[in-house]
Design goal:
- The protein is 41% helix and 21% strand.
- The chain has 16 helices and 19 strands.
- The protein has a 7-stranded parallel beta sheet, with helices on both faces.
- It is of the alpha/beta class.
- The structure holds NADP nicotinamide-adenine-dinucleotide phosphate.
- NADP nicotinamide-adenine-dinucleotide phosphate binds next to α1, β5 and α5.
Length: 476
């Protein structure tokens, strides 16, 4: 059986990829940025985009089962994009003779669906619209609990930060959460299911309210929390509130909040009927597992780590360096300090390690970012030591990584332009460069106003990296 996995760098896709690889399935990954796939992985890669039919046809050629784990939620125009993307995928899959599509969508009924859920339902309807030509297994899940999942991160951040919560009335809405490992089990088993028809499978564990989930999470974290639902909090206010206290940016917070007012409950018994071997674990066990994974730095994937469409560096700078940049460049000789120690030091940037000095200024920048709807510093890092291309570090994203040579970060904070921060080792020199591609006059103004602060922060940053690397080399 030949399997194509789309969304292979996404939260669910990354985990499913590992399960399929462990099972030694003949696997092909469909990715937009091949650099974001671990080069040590022995797997076939098809580069492409669902808006490019040629790339879809190439990727789907010879495939028996294709997983569709794609959405464009980060884009303002996601409804239209998702519809087009699903249609292109279906057309190419039929053309290439694919036998089955497996899709993971959201739980809930159309009549009460938020704009986001409606878009997920539309995607499922499109993918399953030609049952006589291709069969579709459409798995529907509500709140997914696992280390790094957006729902769990929101619940965790709120419960950790706020001992007393005045919340909107949606905390009383009923849902059926499910542990991420169980979601992966259903998806994996779907490729082997012996049926020849379309199937919708609703998955979840026990029924509970969001309030019960937050209190359950607090209990697992050993915290006591008090929650008071108020009917007067609006969607706007709740979205700002979620944006401010949790790692999700405003647009994501708003889509999620809109969805929280309607119940997300299982509508059919197909999970038990067709997958009797899978027994979903309870909410409490899923939370405990997620917390344990976080504590042991075993977070496998995070909601914020889908790579993004373009390699921004390739797009904006590489082919036209002269047009790009205002820059701040600092360099130091690394002398006798081994390269790998210097590399290891600068790649530990962000998260709990901080930004090598002036962390309070970074904190202020993070708060400002949150105030205008950005991600802020709350996303932290997945792992204190390891990095991979495409993942987020606070309000940056790893755009390039070459062992013992280079780290390139792309700024995902709200800035009037495009910004990168690069660390590079060339021979015995560490070179640190902040690049800025300004948008209009305001972009330039922004850069020049910040020149004195940048001078302090960046000069100190490279010195601190060298000092830390030096100390580490003495211990070794
Ligand atoms: N996560 C949850 O809590 C949850 C809950 C219920 C249901 N689901 C469903 O599960 C599915 C996967 O969700 P997820 O959380 O894993 O999403 P995710 O982390 O945001 O990943 C989305 C993936 O889609 C890819 N993608 C987006 N547009 C594309 C395009 N035009 N062509 C090719 N690839 C494209 C992205 O690729 P890049 O890596 O290149 O950016 C990324 O890998 C979705 O259908 C979602 O509705 C998720």
């Amino acid at each position: 059986m030949k399997v194509l996995l789309t969304g292979a760098n996404g939260y669910i896709g990354r985990r499913l990829k590992q399960t399929l690889l462990n099972e030694k399935v003949s696997l092909r990954l469909f990715v937009r940025n091949p650099k974001s796939v671990d080069p040590d992985l022995e797997v076939e890669i098809a580069e492409g985009n669902t808006f490019d039919s040629d790339s879809l046809n190439r990727a789907l050629k010879g495939v028996d089962v294709a997983y569709y784990l794609i959405h464009s939620l980060q884009d303002k125009n996601y409804k239209e994009l998702d519809r087009q993307s699903a249609q292109n995928f279906l057309d190419a899959a039929i053309k290439q003779g694919v036998k089955r599509i497996v899709y993971l969508g959201g739980l809930g009924v159309k009549e009460q669906a938020s704009k986001h859920l409606l878009s997920r339902i539309e995607t499922g309807e499109i993918l399953s619209s030609q049952p006589h030509k291709i069969e579709t297994i459409w798995i529907r899940a509500g709140v997914i609990i696992g280390s790094g999942s957006s729902s769990f991160e929101i619940i965790r951040h709120l419960t950790e930060k706020l001992p007393l919560m005045v919340t909107p009335k949606w905390v009383k809405t009923l849902a059926q959460p499910i542990g991420v490992d169980d979601v992966i089990s259903y998806l994996n088993a779907s490729k082997d299911l012996n049926i020849e028809k379309n199937l919708i499978v609703d998955i979840g564990s026990q029924k509970m309210t969001y309030k019960e989930m937050m209190l359950g999470c607090a209990h697992a974290l050993g915290l006591r929390r008090w929650i008071f639902p108020l009917p007067i909090l609006t969607i706007n206010l709740s979205s700002y509130w979620l944006n401010f206290f949790t790692p999700v940016p405003y647009t994501v917070a708003r889509s999620l909040i809109e969805g929280l007012s309607s119940e997300v409950l299982i509508q059919n018994n197909h999970a038990k009927e067709y997958f009797p071997q899978i027994h979903p674990i309870s909410f409490e066990s899923a939370v405990k597992k997620a917390i344990q994974n976080m504590e042991e730095n075993q977070v496998f994937s995070r909601w914020s780590d889908a790579g993004g469409e373009h390699d921004q560096w390739e797009k904006h700078y590489k082919d036209d360096p002269a047009s790009a940049v205002l820059m701040d460049r600092q360099s130091v000789k690394i002398g006798i300090i081994p390269k790998e120690i210097v590399y290891h030091t600068f790649t530990s940037i962000g998260g709990k390690e901080g930004w090598f000095g002036y962390n309070w200024l970074w904190e202020i920048r993070g708060i400002m970012d949150k105030m205008i709807g950005g991600a802020g510093l709350n996303r932290g890092r997945r792992d204190p030591h390891k990095l991979r291309i495409g993942e987020s570090i606070d309000f940056w994203r790893v755009e390039d990584l070459s062992v013992n040579e280079r780290l390139l970060l792309y700024a995902q904070m709200k800035v009037p332009g495009k910004a990168w921060l690069e660390f590079k080792i060339i021979e015995d020199e560490l070179i640190q460069t902040a690049y800025f591609y300004p948008r209009g006059l305001f972009g330039r103004l922004y850069w020049y106003v910040l020149v004195p602060i940048h001078y302090l922060v960046f000069r100190n940053m490279i010195k601190t990296i060298l000092d830390k690397a030096h100390k580490k080399s003495l211990i070794k």
